[in-house]
Amino acid sequence: MLQKILYTAIALAFGGTSLCAEMAGWQDHYRRGDQFLTQGKIEEARQELLSALSKAEGERLDGPKAGLILDALGKTEYQAGRYRLAAKYFDLSLQIWTPHSPEQAAGLCNAGQAYQAMGQQRRAEDSFRRALEILPQSPQIWVSLGQILFLRRRYAAAEAAQRKALTMYQDSRSPDAAIPLNDLAILYQAQLKNQQAEEALAQAVALLPAGQRRARILANLGALQWKMGRKNDAESQLRSALGEMEQAVGPGHPDVGRILEDYSAVLKKTGRGDEARSLEKRAQGIRSAFALNDNRGGATVDWRDLK
């Protein structure tokens, strides 16, 4: 299968055709696949995108458009937790993109996310650094670099990368500044700097409107406050995080399950056993439903989102 795809990518990179032929066949499959991916319908997206790739091969589609299909397939496999196959698709797209282009930078960042998910930390770092050579003003890539440096326990370098991203987001007045703030909080916790971690999380919460992202950070804040012995604050934050997450994504989402796990543990330790067991049972049900598709990695990116 992968050898077949490799041959396809090589053929597409150097093929040529008319505009009318380019617009026929592959584009409908690609559009549907992209829509399914946005909706979280992973297997449907995969089938449409594989059909687009097959059509593209038959139509001798030019390189950049083939790169779009391969990149979308990489994102699909990444979301499905099939990281090795995702990396293969991203690597193939990198053979097609114009050197030093925004598309190539996004492909390098996406490949780095897949390498990171597979535990190939050095290779991931190299991909993020190569992406930054192309787009040094992209806060998203600086965040990714900071995350991999954290995993490699290079804490000073990780903090510098996250602070660079934070400055860029703050300069543009973007609420996405919450992302490096959350990562800085994790970094501070690893160094037992809990007060600094709490301050970073509180700043992140203040930047975001109610929704999935803020609920995640509220849950992180509650878990930290529990470690700091602030039981009432922890219970309040986790309760708020649970309600906000359920409102944002529904009661059966994996993010709800993760908050339920932490919240039930807090309730159990504060003497509310019956309530804790009820929430724990809900968390177990969600875990079982999503066991094969649980993805805790970073998000893949589109070159148009890189700044």
Considering the chains and any ligands shown, give keywords for the structure.
76% helix; mainly alpha; disordered C terminus; disordered N terminus; Serine Threonine Protein Phosphatase 5, Tetratricopeptide repeat
Q: What does this protein structure show overall?
A:
The protein has 307 residues and is an all-alpha fold. The chain contains 16 helices and no strands. It has helices at 2-14, 19-23, 26-38, 42-59, 63-79, 83-94, 102-117, 121-134, 139-151, 155-171, 178-190, 194-207, 212-227, 231-249, 254-269, 273-289. The chain starts with a helix and ends in an 18-residue tail after the last helix.
Oligomer: single chain
Provide the helix percentage: over 70%
Number of helices: 16
Q: Give the overall pLDDT as a whole number.
A: 86
What is the CATH level 1 assignment of the domain at 1-103?
Answer: Mainly Alpha
- N/C terminus separation: 35 Å
pLDDT under 50 segments (min length 5)? Answer: 1-24, 292-297, 300-307
What would CATH call the homologous superfamily of the domain at 1-103? Answer: Tetratricopeptide repeat domain
Which geometry do the CA atoms define? Answer: globular
CATH architecture of the domain at 1-103: Alpha Horseshoe
Structural class: mainly alpha
Major sheet characteristics: none
* Total strands: 0
CATH topology descriptor of the domain at 1-103? Serine Threonine Protein Phosphatase 5, Tetratricopeptide repeat
Query: What is the H/E order?
Result: HHHHHHHHHHHHHHHH
